[in-house]
Amino acid sequence: MELENPNEIMSNELVPMEETQPIESDLQLDIIDTEPNHYEMAPPDITEQPPTKRRKKKSIVWEHFTIETVGAGCRRACCKQCKQSFAYSTGSKVAGTSHLKRHIAKGTCPVVLRNQEKNQQLANSPYSAPSKLSIFSETPKRRYRTASVPLVSFDADRCRREISRMIIMHDYPLHMVEHPGFLAFVQNLQPRFDMVSFNTVQGDIVATYLREKQSILKVVEGMPGRICLTLDLWSSSQSTGYVFVSGQFIDSDWKMHRKLLNVIRQPYPESDTAFSHSVSACLSDWGMDGKLISVTINQPLSEASVDNLRALLSVKNPLLLDGQLLVGGCLAHSLSTIVQDGLAFAQGVVKKVRDSVKYVKTSESLEEKFNEIKQTHQVPSSKKLEIDDQTRWNTTYEMLSSALELKKVFTKLGESDPDYKDPPSEQDWSQIQTLCQTLKQLFDIANILTVPPTTKTIAVFHEVWKVQLDLARSANNKENDFLSGMTKSMYENFDKYWKSTCYILAIAVVMDPRFKMKLVQFTFVKIYGEERAASFIKIVDEGIHELFHEYLSFPMHSTHDSSYGEDENGQSVKIEDSEGMDSNGGLSDFDAYIMETTSQLSKTELDQYLEESLLPRVHDFDVVGWWKLNRIKYPTLSKMARDVLSVPVCTVPGNMVFDTVRREMDSYRSSLRSETVEALICAKDWLQPEKLEGPAPVIKMEIPI
């Protein structure tokens, strides 16, 4: 048999994968060992004539070794660096290449050893190419294919988009794309990706924002009714302000939406025109002139600010009820203000409890001792002690209520521990109990605001009027000086919120077929007495009728065209006039004549609705869903209900409801361009999955009507 050529024998070696078919290392299924585990065929006789076609040796080891013939049938491999020779073939036996690779990889070659430090430095460089030695510098690794993940080709544009989305979603600084650590990570992950600069990623973020804005714009343009705006003012270290403008509305499927629309930098946030300028900019940006029903702001406004806002909107927006529904206060801000009033009045006893909790929680041995006392005396409480975060008032309330349940344990700890000084006395605990009882009502209301966007006005009304009544009674309590002193300022501040919002809250309650005007009459009598309540009830009743007639006079459709109506699915459809007459002529005058001559004889939708019996009060009742089902029976009143029930009572998201400090834009974002700040914050809101309307909040009807 004719022996093979030496070069052909070399080609029988296992070829590294980098030199054959390229395979994505993280998308492998087959397990391939890079070390050969076989012997090659015997070398040929050196006297034979080699074939004319010579195949190139493919193993990378031959870049470091040469083959030398030392005798008949005996060849050795010689290291090009240190000139050492190693067995390669003797007769029919071939030693293979594994020991040659180890000579280079393990650093036994003196030349390689001397250059090890230099090679290591090159390997750590973020832009250095992998060394050819690195493929066998460690224990041979296995490569895997994953059957469930398809092969994905490298796309530099997609990588740039994902970097911008990552920065948006996780609030990373834009300059991270220039940080050495991030550069090294990306280069090692994908060497073919050309890393972007700060200016490039800034442009990518704005591009992402504009793409997402087009989707939101379609949703806003498709809303069938009016929109409500909320304004939340943030401060900054640069003395400028940022107004967060959000929109809340009910779509054609009768689902509630809340979207952050703009983040507008205000150079003079304390001016009387800051909020009116923000509203004007939002309406122009989104094309919503004439579609606004209310504005809710997170802080009290001066009379000049309110006048400027209403004057602006009287030009761009029809003023429903002469603007009485236009400006409202934020319930979360009002609750935070009055809670701080109560905590400030009781700061002495609050500090005693806080110090006691800190004394126990900052020592593991004391906490164990505290729990032992609790078990020994069988104190029936499942609550755990936690030190409060004074920037969130719910944590202070929970700390006080937990400590109150464990007051016996604190008392016993004071008797057995001489280092525990000045524990709360019985009088202190009595005052803490009074404070917790007052705060619990406010805590329950605030929890309603933490759920996803939903029709909260009715649930809030029923809780708010009880707080208004209880605070008024507590402030006039002659038997408990601590209670009356604490609640006096709380009542004064809460009364301001009640007076600014009770009108719109009352109108929203009338839109609930379980309550209608009956609940308004009941609550107003409770708060004001029968004589004073009569005038307030009359204002609400007249306001509802006036608002209904405005909806009759100025119908609101998503197409802005009176020739459009809604089909049984709530979708806008064009109404064709008979005999080819358009909606602005022909029989339209006759329709107006019929309305004028029969208006005194027939009942309006509103009168018919108010005269019908109340529905049974069930806790899982969906008010908006009821109007959706009855929109054919009440075509105009249902549109009015849809807009009124979408009025928000809070300007902040659920995770900010309990905050006691005004939000401040960090110094890094304040240094960015205002367009970039808006793109970062708005795009993050839009990229997150939207939480549509959930179950209606449970309405507690403790007092029968």
From TrEMBL:
One of its GO terms (biological process) is post-embryonic development. It comes from the Eukaryota. Residues 56-116 form the BED-type domain. It is found in: Nucleus. Keywords: DNA-binding, Metal-binding, Nucleus, Transcription, Transcription regulation, Zinc, Zinc-finger. Its main location: nucleus. GO terms for molecular function: DNA binding; protein dimerization activity; zinc ion binding. Pfam families: Dimer_Tnp_hAT, hAT-like_RNase-H. InterPro entries: hAT-like_transposase_RNase-H, HATC_C_dom, RNaseH-like_sf, Znf_BED, ZnF_BED_domain_contain, Znf_C2H2_sf. Homodimer. This is BED-type domain-containing protein.
